[in-house]
Amino acid sequence: MANHASAKKRSRQNKLRNTVNSQYISKFRTALNHFQTSLDSEKEEEIQKSFSAVNSILAKASKKGIFKKEYISRKLSSLSKQISKK
Fold it and tell me: Looking at the domain 5-85, which fold is it?
Protein backbone atom coordinates (compact mmCIF):
# COMPACT_ATOMS: atom_id res chain seq x y z
CA MET A 1 0.00 0.00 0.00
CA ALA A 2 1.17 3.52 -0.76
CA ASN A 3 2.50 5.54 2.14
CA HIS A 4 3.11 8.97 0.61
CA ALA A 5 0.27 11.31 -0.24
CA SER A 6 1.36 11.55 -3.88
CA ALA A 7 1.51 7.76 -4.18
CA LYS A 8 -1.99 7.45 -2.69
CA LYS A 9 -3.29 9.98 -5.20
CA ARG A 10 -1.55 8.17 -8.05
CA SER A 11 -3.20 4.92 -6.93
CA ARG A 12 -6.65 6.56 -6.94
CA GLN A 13 -6.04 8.04 -10.38
CA ASN A 14 -4.87 4.71 -11.79
CA LYS A 15 -7.98 2.92 -10.51
CA LEU A 16 -10.26 5.50 -12.10
CA ARG A 17 -8.37 5.48 -15.42
CA ASN A 18 -8.42 1.69 -15.48
CA THR A 19 -12.19 1.68 -14.99
CA VAL A 20 -12.80 4.24 -17.72
CA ASN A 21 -10.44 2.53 -20.15
CA SER A 22 -12.03 -0.86 -19.62
CA GLN A 23 -15.47 0.68 -20.23
CA TYR A 24 -14.31 2.04 -23.60
CA ILE A 25 -12.81 -1.31 -24.55
CA SER A 26 -16.04 -3.06 -23.57
CA LYS A 27 -18.10 -0.60 -25.65
CA PHE A 28 -15.80 -1.21 -28.60
CA ARG A 29 -16.09 -4.99 -28.37
CA THR A 30 -19.87 -4.79 -28.08
CA ALA A 31 -20.09 -2.49 -31.11
CA LEU A 32 -17.82 -4.84 -33.03
CA ASN A 33 -20.09 -7.78 -32.21
CA HIS A 34 -23.11 -5.79 -33.40
CA PHE A 35 -21.24 -4.99 -36.60
CA GLN A 36 -20.50 -8.66 -37.24
CA THR A 37 -24.13 -9.66 -36.68
CA SER A 38 -25.30 -6.89 -39.00
CA LEU A 39 -22.90 -8.18 -41.66
CA ASP A 40 -24.49 -11.59 -41.33
CA SER A 41 -27.98 -10.13 -41.69
CA GLU A 42 -26.90 -8.34 -44.91
CA LYS A 43 -29.10 -5.30 -44.32
CA GLU A 44 -27.25 -2.36 -45.83
CA GLU A 45 -28.72 0.31 -43.55
CA GLU A 46 -27.99 -1.69 -40.42
CA ILE A 47 -24.41 -2.37 -41.57
CA GLN A 48 -23.72 1.32 -42.15
CA LYS A 49 -25.25 2.25 -38.80
CA SER A 50 -23.14 -0.25 -36.89
CA PHE A 51 -19.99 0.74 -38.82
CA SER A 52 -20.65 4.35 -37.90
CA ALA A 53 -21.05 3.36 -34.24
CA VAL A 54 -17.74 1.48 -34.27
CA ASN A 55 -16.05 4.44 -35.94
CA SER A 56 -17.43 6.85 -33.35
CA ILE A 57 -16.35 4.72 -30.40
CA LEU A 58 -12.85 4.30 -31.84
CA ALA A 59 -12.53 8.04 -32.45
CA LYS A 60 -13.49 8.80 -28.85
CA ALA A 61 -11.12 6.13 -27.55
CA SER A 62 -8.32 7.57 -29.68
CA LYS A 63 -8.96 11.02 -28.26
CA LYS A 64 -8.63 9.56 -24.75
CA GLY A 65 -5.43 7.71 -25.71
CA ILE A 66 -6.85 4.22 -25.19
CA PHE A 67 -6.08 2.95 -28.70
CA LYS A 68 -3.26 4.02 -31.00
CA LYS A 69 -4.07 5.82 -34.23
CA GLU A 70 -2.45 3.06 -36.30
CA TYR A 71 -4.62 0.37 -34.71
CA ILE A 72 -7.78 2.37 -35.35
CA SER A 73 -6.85 3.01 -38.96
CA ARG A 74 -6.07 -0.65 -39.55
CA LYS A 75 -9.27 -1.81 -37.85
CA LEU A 76 -11.54 0.59 -39.77
CA SER A 77 -9.85 -0.38 -43.02
CA SER A 78 -10.45 -4.08 -42.43
CA LEU A 79 -14.06 -3.45 -41.43
CA SER A 80 -14.76 -1.38 -44.55
CA LYS A 81 -13.13 -4.11 -46.63
CA GLN A 82 -15.57 -6.60 -45.08
CA ILE A 83 -18.46 -4.32 -46.07
CA SER A 84 -17.29 -4.07 -49.66
CA LYS A 85 -17.02 -7.86 -49.94
CA LYS A 86 -20.70 -8.31 -49.03
Answer: Methane Monooxygenase Hydroxylase; Chain G, domain 1 (1.20.58)
